[in-house]
Design goal:
Elements lengths: L1 H10 L6 H4 L2 H18 L4 H5 L11 H14 L5 H5 L5 H4 L7 H15 L6 H18 L4
Helix pairs in contact: 3-5, 3-8, 8-9
């Protein structure tokens, strides 16, 4: 049994808390910036972009980016910035006034998956984090 324990210790997956794996506040800020850069520039995300308020340049405003940053810091296991600044996340309720179908949901996930590719994550971390985003996106979808 001792040999098996040593083998397990050598080969066990190295998984970090998502907040740490993503690079804490600085890394999550980069992720959110990359996410909205993709949404603002990639034609594959046009429907998702269109449900957001847009600034005079036709891009998602910094205020929206900041709120996602606050949310993701807490969502990933870091400080509860969204709760401190805005209140309970209740993301489904906060998005109920926006038409979010499978199209917008999938485009949101496309942007997040593409932004996550820049992060140095191991396979298990990437899968765990992406699965959390998939679950979140499905909860926020409010029409078929």
């Amino acid at each position: 049994m001792l040999v098996l324990n040593k083998i397990y210790e050598i080969f066990k997956p190295k998984m970090r808390v998502p907040f740490i794996a993503l690079g804490q506040e600085e890394g999550i800020r980069e992720l959110v910036h990359d996410f909205y850069f993709i949404m603002n520039t990639d034609p594959k995300a046009i429907h998702c972009k269109e449900v957001h308020p847009l600034n005079t340049e036709g891009n998602v405003p910094v205020e929206v980016e900041e709120k996602l940053y606050w949310f993701l810091v807490g969502f990933s296991g870091g400080p509860q910035l969204f709760m401190e600044k805005v209140g309970p996340p209740r993301m489904r309720m906060r998005h109920h006034h926006i038409r979010i179908s499978s199209i917008e949901r999938d485009e949101w996930l496309y942007c997040m998956k593409k932004a996550l590719k820049k992060k140095k994550l191991n396979r298990l971390e990437r899968k765990m984090i992406m699965n959390s985003f998939i679950a979140l996106a499905f909860r926020i979808q409010n029409i078929q």
